[in-house]
Structure formats: structure tokens, C-alpha cells
Design goal:
This protein is an alpha/beta fold. Helices cover 46% and strands 20% of the residues.
């Protein structure tokens, strides 16, 4: 069986080469269909996602909420590559060929630099909201990945110390593909290890969806029946782990702990129940979606926007979950106006970020 590193290198080499092919195919398609206009469609923004995930669905909803406001009025078109990176590149090339004035990317950065350069050369505003930055984007929106993971690991350590005298078997649902999501996964382990050195790390599996989280957690719990903690790098696999743990009869919040990072509505709902889903690190995604569209609108109007925006995170527990539930329902509410200017929530940098692949 080939190693993960070897498979990743093959994928990167192939995608880099495929970028040039996709450009030619995109140009040919636009010529044959006559879809290229002499200028850009000034109200049209393409949103490219690699696969359906709850966090991406929620971000899209919040972006569309702001896009419909009278002072913005942008038309967002979302396309889903359904897990096929080659399909996603072709979809992005179609946005460029059809003259979309803005593109928002949620992608792996492999082979994207040349595509981004081609788009921005045409005057297209390209915002990258992937975990890892991409060189040349109008704006890279990035997350403080390590801190988010560290907070969740720290919370798990506190629970283990309080409930189980510092002793626990721990499983991890991690990411092995994106460099920055690997950083977040490492933060989970570091936060736990720093505050609970005797906890035993007995299993870790890559899982980035609810279904994969459920399958991985089910197998881990069967292999390690004494396991009492599962930490997930994102909420989707965390929700799958919660389902698996519940199905196995692990429903007592004094005896089982699940934590994750992102802050999607479904995870917040689980935390509010007061059960085994103990916490998550929220990246303030409802506010993030709104700000993404505000910055995109400025850029499409020819105004400068900072090349980098960094989203912070905050630990969500049953004690403060109601605040985040309200935020998800109405990110434009008056109680959240000050958050948009709070540097612990989001801050800008004039330093452009570049693609960094391991």
C-alpha cells in the first residue's frame, strides 16, 4: 500500500500539470459557446467548493445574506466539485472564461497559483478561503488554526483532570492532506498534552466528513473500548463521532467527551443539549461570511482591500453557546456590530500570503 505522503505528492504533481490543460479546455469551451463577454459581469461572483460540508453550506448562506443587502446586491453562484479536484479546476476555469467579476475559492492549493494569476490579470477579484493560502489572490482569508485546536485539546485536558483524575484513552479524527489543517490537528494534541501529560493517545484516523467520522469513531471505540475522549479537527467528523458514541451507549457527559473545531450550527445544537458533545472552537463563521462579501464588493468596485484577513477563534461550551446560536441566526444583529472591528475576532494584515505546501 502506498503511503499518504507518496499519494499526496502524486496528486500535487498531477494537479499542477492539469492546471495548464484546464486553462486550454476552459478557453476552448468559452470560444465554442460564445460565453466570453468583452467585459466582466460586475454583479456575478462564483463560489467554488470541493465537496458538500455543513460548514461550507453555512458560509454560503451567510454570504448570500449579505449579498442581498441593498448596498451590495451581488449574485453568488455556488458550484460543488463533489470531491473531484479535476472537476473543481474546470469549474473555476469556467468562472474565468465566463467573465465572473469575483471568485471565492475553497480548494486545496495544489496547482492553483497559475490559475489565480490568470484570473487576476483579467481584473477578477479572487478571494481564497481555503485552509492554506494561495499566492497572488486579491485576499487570502485564513484561520488561526493552531490556537483553535489547542483550545479544544486544553478543554479536554481539563475535563480529564476533573472527571478522571488525569487518566484517559484519547482518539483523534485528523486531517492529513492540507498543511494548515494538519497544524490544527497538531494543536488538538498539543493542548491536551500540555495540560494532561498522562493521557494516552491510542488512535488517530483521517476523517473530514460526518460519515467518515462515524465510521472511524465506530472502529476506534470497538478497538479501544476504554476510550473516553474523541477530538476532531472539524465539526463534521465530530458529529459523526458523536453519533457513533451514542449508538454504542456512551451518553453520559461525565464519562465521555467529544470536542471539535469550526462552530457550525449542528455542533452548537449538540453542545446546547449538555451531552457528550462538550465543546468546539468557533471561528465566527457567520460574521466571516458577511465580511467576505463586504470585502468582495469593495474589491469589485475597484477599491483596495487588505491582502490578508485572519479569523480568530473562541471556545464554545454549554455556558456560552447561546451567544453563538444567536450569531448564527442573525450575524447582522446590533449585538454583533462591534465584533467586526474586534481584532480577537478578525483582523487584517497588509502582508500578502503565499502558497505553502509541505
Amino acid at each position: 500500500m502506498e503511503s499518504e505522503d507518496h499519494n499526496a505528492m502524486k496528486r500535487r504533481e498531477f494537479l499542477s500539470r492539469f492546471g495548464a490543460w484546464a486553462a486550454a479546455l476552459g478557453a476552448l469551451a468559452s470560444t465554442l459557446t460564445g460565453c466570453v463577454s468583452t467585459g466582466l459581469m460586475r454583479d456575478r461572483v462564483g463560489v467554488s467548493i470541493p465537496y458538500e460540508a455543513e460548514i461550507l453550506n453555512e458560509l454560503d448562506q451567510n454570504m448570500k445574506l449579505e449579498a442581498k443587502t441593498p448596498n451590495i446586491k451581488l449574485d453568488l453562484v455556488l458550484v460543488d466539485a463533489e470531491g473531484d479536484p479535476l472537476k473543481q479546476i474546470l469549474q473555476i476555469e469556467a468562472f474565468i472564461a465566463q467573465g465572473y467579476a469575483g471568485i471565492i475559492l475553497f480548494v486545496l492549493p495544489d496547482g492553483m497559483d497559475a490559475i489565480v494569476a490568470r484570473a487576476t490579470a483579467k481584473g477578477i477579484s479572487v478571494f481564497n478561503h481555503s485552509a492554506t493560502p494561495i499566492t497572488g489572490c486579491t485576499q487570502n482569508i485564513v484561520l488561526n488554526q493552531y490556537h483553535a485546536g489547542f483550545q479544544v485539546g486544553e478543554a479536554a485536558a481539563c475535563w480529564i483532570n476533573q472527571k478522571h483524575h488525569g487518566q484517559a484513552q484519547v482518539g483523534f479524527l485528523i486531517n492529513l492532506t492540507d498543511p494548515q489543517l494538519i497544524v490544527r490537528s497538531n494543536g488538538l494534541k498539543a493542548g491536551l498534552r500540555k495540560h494532561c501529560s498522562e493521557a494516552k493517545f491510542v488512535a488517530e484516523v483521517e476523517a473530514n466528513t460526518v460519515d467518515k467520522g462515524w465510521s472511524a469513531a465506530s472502529n476506534m471505540l470497538e478497538a479501544h473500548p476504554e476510550m473516553t475522549v474523541i477530538l476532531a479537527f472539524s465539526d463534521d467528523p465530530g458529529l459523526g463521532a458523536c453519533q457513533a458514541a451514542t449508538e454504542s451507549g456512551r451518553t453520559n457527559p461525565d464519562n465521555f467527551f467529544i470536542g471539535s473545531a469550526d462552530g457550525i450550527q449542528l455542533a452548537l445544537d449538540k453542545i446546547a443539549e449538555g451531552g457528550i458533545y462538550n465543546c468546539c472552537a468557533s471561528f465566527f463563521f457567520p460574521l466571516d461570511g458577511v465580511q467576505t462579501i463586504r470585502d468582495m464588493a469593495k474589491s469589485m468596485r475597484g477599491l483596495n482591500v487588505p491582502p490578508t484577513r485572519i479569523m480568530g477563534s473562541r471556545l464554545v461550551t454549554k455556558e456560552n453557546v447561546e451567544l453563538f446560536l444567536r450569531m448564527g441566526k442573525d450575524p447582522l444583529a446590533a449585538e454583533f456590530r462591534s465584533y467586526y472591528a474586534d481584532p480577537s475576532v478578525m483582523r487584517y494584515s497588509d502582508k500578502p500570503l503565499t502558497t505553502q505546501l509541505s
